Amino acid sequence: MSNFSKWDELKGVIRPNDRILCLIRPDPDSIASAFALRTLLLRRVESVTVAYDEPSKRLQNRAMVKLLRLSLESVKSVDVSRFTKIALLDAQVNRFPDYRDWTFHLAFDHHPFIEEYPYLFADIRPETGATSTILAEYLAAAKVRISERLATALCYGIKTDTDDFQRHTGRADAEAFSRLFPLANYHLLQSIDQSEIPFRQLDFMDLALHRLRVKKRRAVVHLGAAEAADIAVIIADFLIRVSGIEFAVVAIIAGDKLILIFRSRNPRRHAGRIAFNHFGEIGSAGGHAAAGRAEIPLPQVPSEVKVFDFDSIEHWIEKELGRPVKTRAQETNPS
Fold it and tell me: What's the pLDDT score for residue 100?
């Protein structure tokens, strides 16, 4: 289906009196995508509000919001009943298990299709490297003027989710970036990128390097507890670049969840499928070939596992990864 057809389809479900809530798990791609959808629809509906389900503590996300002067609200501070439609950006319903009783109407995502859901409209493209790419295509189809701030946000969303075009990148991502980059502020992009690792989090890097054990080119490391999982993402991205490591799992406890970050550079070890097949029954899990994630509520962790014991968590993850499972393959978008 062409971009113009998808845009026409989306227009068919939008009403002038709609008040739309965009729900995101804040990262550069979801933030940029949400503000792109806001720009796309703002003159066609009554209002568009962007809300996050949990605050982002990662410096690059906060720098992006601050430098680009973007307005985000906590979903806990909004009255959901006043919205006529709820849109998911860079996510599907499985990413928001706490809101299963809500009705979601729109979904835009580049992650593998997880489950059937009766959205009014959905555009889910696992072959695309970033949701920012998808929304950039809608802006082009609708001939919407893209501001410098929005172009910068979308460029950064594409840049981060494709890891500077080193993983899961399609032609659409390169084309979108080439259209957006001349409109973006290069200095702002640099400023956001340089706000990466808080000094106090270097302790986690030290811990990871001291605990690092590699078996059959696979590294599994538990970092203990932290305010957020962002440092686990940074360390997983670092480990997968180390010679001799083809698959990495970094675990961390953030809030009331055990979060596992998966990275792979072995085509036969699909990070998202491994996360989904081994941990999807006790939490939210999935991802792409090179990058996956599982979020497991602490009460769902098996009782024999001591969640605050580094060895216990690492041993359990190794055991689970070595356990044969019936493949619970993530489907592609049937449309």
Answer: 85
The span from the CA of 256 to the CA of 239, in Å, is 25
User: H helices of the chain, where?
Assistant: 3-11, 28-41, 59-67, 131-141, 148-161, 171-180, 186-193, 202-211, 230-239, 271-279, 310-322
Helix (H, G, I), strand (E, B) or coil at 185: coil
Angle between helices 271-279 and 310-322 (to 10 degrees): 100
58 contacts 228 by C-beta, under 8 angstroms: yes
Same domain, 217 and 172: no
- Name residues of the chain where pLDDT drops below 50: 329-335
Domain count, the chain: 2
Q: Are residues 120 and 206 in the same domain?
A: no
Give me the phi and psi of 47, to 5 degrees please.
-160, 155
User: Among 137, 170, 193, where does a domain finish?
Assistant: 193
- Tokens representing 301 are 């962790």
Question: Which residues are CB-contacts of 25 (< 8 A; sequence separation ≥ 6)?
Answer: 52, 53, 54, 90, 91, 95
- Token pair, residue 38, equals 């806001």
